[in-house]
Amino acid sequence: MAAPARPVSLALVLACLAGTLALGVVVKAPCASGDWADGRQYERLCYSDIVPLLGTEQLGAGRLPYLDPCDRSLPGECDEYPVLSMWTMRLASGVSGNDIPRFFFANVILLALAAAVVAICLYVMAGPRALWFVLAPTLLVYAFINWDLVAVAFATAATLAYLRRRDVWAGVLIGLGAAAKLYPALVLIPFVAGRFRAGEPERGTYLTWAAVGAWLVTNLPFALASPGAWWEFFRFNSARAADWDSFWFIACHRATGEFTCGGIGVINVASVVLFVAIVAVLWRWKASREPGFARWTLAFPVLIVFLLTNKVYSPQYGLWLLPWFALALPDLRLFAAFELADVAVFVTRFSWFGELAGFGGLPIGAFEAAVVVRAVVLIACVVAWVRRRDVGAEPVPLSFGDRASAPAPA
């Protein structure tokens, strides 16, 4: 008689998370000093936005984001992030002052706490599949490269609140997440659709207004106090050129041989049109195959389509998808394929940057090939989600006491 499988405990999940994050710190530590003159950020693959942004966001001397003016004579953008991301930086700089390593490690602590929130929420919702998140190579290489884990924590907590039918709390958490990174606002669409599909339009309305209200409460004071500085995030991103990791950049580079892509206004409009059209097709395709599918799982393909059609796919955006593999597409083979492709993009991207900067590295063709492979994997994930037919009902998250023996939700 086979021995019963040992349950996966929350303690084990958090221990694995601690191990992954510790390795992530080891990977980034050579760059924490900010002394990058030798090209170590490329050769040792330790690049992190956190290190230079203490200076470019002018936080070392105690500047208050949006409220205190930026010195435009200094290089780099300033106030280029949403409110909660900027003030997460400010919180860390309040501890570090102008000390770059201390700033980096203060942010490590804040981002590790955000990762723990994600892990705990996933454990409640998906049981053992929380290990997918905490052991993901994507988490190892990207956890401390930017502040995306803050938004991921809000979005994952919002998903838990939604599945527990705490719609106002779900909306508040989505609004706060969108105040850190706009992507959690995309999750609102399938969540509200789920409530309307279930014949509960009032719940969908509460969810929507709670999200809008939380975002406004967070943003409005800065928008009124300093509208120009607050608007910088939107101005910067609308004028931003197609980023290296996007299909737009690859198309431009292959067509012209240049590293810049013109027609930003056209790309902005085309990105939105493609995103809306493809999501509509996927929604209709899934509904035709399985009319009663759980609408909240649509968040997974929505995020993928956004990443593939957008002009910017920053490397750490892979963190957005990690919880959704555990929740909406529990296919370990596809998850492993995404992880391999995502890490390949990371390695080839920064190796090519080293080549571009004169330190040696892989050619751009290797990087672009990795981007295409990752896109193919993500498209396969979307197709698999559409074809999957066992996601009919919304799972009810269980208590911690039930987690050990209960199966993960479909």
Secondary-structure blueprint:
Elements (H helix, E strand, L loop, with lengths): L9 H19 L11 H4 L6 H7 L26 H14 L3 H27 L3 H5 L2 H6 L5 H16 L3 H12 L5 H14 L3 H25 L1 H13 L7 H10 L7 H26 L9 H11 L8 H11 L3 H25 L7 H24 L12 H4 L7
Helix pairs in contact: 1-5, 3-5, 4-5, 5-8, 8-9, 9-10, 9-11, 10-11, 10-15, 11-12, 14-15, 14-18, 15-16, 15-18, 17-18
Query: Any low-confidence stretches, pLDDT <50, length ≥5?
Result: 1-5, 399-410
The largest sheet, given as strand count, sense and whether it forms a barrel, is:
none
* Total of helices: 19
Give the fraction of residues assigned to helices.
55-70%
Radius of gyration: 21 Å
Can you give the mean pLDDT? Answer: 91
Tell the overall outline. globular
Please identify the structural class as seen in this structure.
mainly alpha
Number of domains: 3
User: Would you count the extended β strands for me?
Assistant: 0
Estimate what percentage of residues fall within beta strands: under 5%
End-to-end Cα distance, whole Å, is: 28 Å
Query: Secondary-structure element sequence?
Result: HHHHHHHHHHHHHHHHHHH
